[in-house]
Amino acid sequence: MHQVIRFAAAAAGVAAGASAFAQTPATYPNKSIRIVVGFPAGGPADIFARAIAQKLTEVTGQQVVVDNRAGAGGIVATENVAKSPADGYSVYLGSSAVLSFYANLYDKLPYDLNRDFVPVTLAVTVPEMLVVHPALPVKTAKEFVALAKVKPGQMSYGSTGNGNMPNLAFESFKIAAGVNILHVPYKGAAPAVIDLLGGHVQATILDLPVLLPHVQGGKMRALAIATAKRAAPLPNVPTMAEAGVAGYDVSPWFAVFAPAGTPMTVIAKLNKVLIDTMKQPDVVERLDAIGAEPVGSTPEALASHLARESAMWSQLITERKIKLE
Questions:
Q1: Among residues 171, 175, 163, which one has the least CA distance to residue 323?
Q2: Which of 251, 260, 210, 250 is nearest to 92 (CA)?
Q3: Running along the chain, 325 residues long, what does each successive block of 10 average in pLDDT?
Q4: Which end of the chain has fewer surrounding CB within 10 Å, N or C?
Q5: Which helix (H) or strand (E) holds 56?
Q6: Three-state DSSP class for 203?
Q7: Residue 19: predicted pLDDT
Q8: Helix, strand, coil % (nearest 5) of the chain?
Q9: H or E segment at 319?
């Protein structure tokens, strides 16, 4: 089921498209743009989309709306954009989970990333964070690993379900740290967080924006940021590498894609206005406050990034025999 990413060829045409666009009337955009998100309002994906949409409206002079189409872990939204007109007025803000490992978990999907989409830009990265219940007698990730090694299989971690990012992130941590910690899957972040707060599981790795208020309120103890650099809202929390877990860097991300067949001139214009938007100080500040980082990349860079991520998660899914339930 390993997915081979072939976006590079389509993305390579954007450079030529940018040149062609400069020689044609700048008629795009001349009406409202729809950013489709596969998760409900209020979640991280929705927050990112609205931060982008608000500023994109100012940059383009056209209304940019967020269309929340929750369902099937983001598959409903992905299919919706795949079947939308290829004119640049419906774009998809997809998560790394949907884009980089769903093809390795589902036997059949109602879309094909290679056939149905063209990359636009890598938009936002979001650090994951390792946290524990404050009653657990550990202050650092190193102490947590040491405790897990003397109590193999006796501690547990909560996730948002089998095959979701927190599950894969923690399984990757277990490999890097050489520990055996029981997995307890939940149906979403809310119940996983509730059971951690109640002490029913000892740890989790989740998106920083989800965990931040609980850490700041003293109800969870942050041990490490799961990425290569520290997070602005919690500057005193070390990275995994700094905490002694070498070779571990898990950073969920969100990227913008358009339906296949969208003119390269439109992709080039979309790419430019999105990158300009991600550089706006108020967008940077808004995302920085919740630990997210605006990126902005070329379509080619996004295609390469997706290929690397897909290969990495495919290997982990196969090695740990992870299956959806």
A1: 163
A2: 260
A3: 50 43 60 94 86 91 95 94 96 95 93 96 95 97 97 96 94 96 93 96 95 96 94 95 92 96 95 93 89 93 96 94 87
A4: C
A5: helix 44-60
A6: strand
A7: 38
A8: 45, 20, 40
A9: helix 299-319
Beta carbons of 175 and 181 less than 8 angstroms apart: no
Report the side by side order of strands in the sheet with 182-185.
182-185, 156-159, 203-207, 128-132, 221-225
Q: Return the structure tokens found at 274.
A: 């999105």
Domains for the chain: give ranges and CATH numbers. 7-126+252-319 (3.40.190.150), 128-225 (3.40.190.10)
Contacts of 239 (CB under 8 A, 6+ apart): 224, 225, 226, 227, 228, 229, 230
Q: Which pair of tokens denotes residue 266?
A: 């439109």
Asked, as a colleague might, if the bond just before 137 is cis with ω within 30 of 0, I would say: no
CA 256 to CA 270: how far, in whole Å? 9
Q: Report yes or no: 295 and 150 within 8 Å, Cβ to Cβ.
A: no
Single-letter residue type at 29: P
Residue in 120, 167, 164, 114 with CA at minimum distance from that of residue 2 = 114
Query: Residues 232, 215: contact at Cβ < 8 Å?
Result: no
CB of 141 closer than 8 Å to CB of 244 = yes
94 — phi, psi (to 5°)?
A: -100, 150
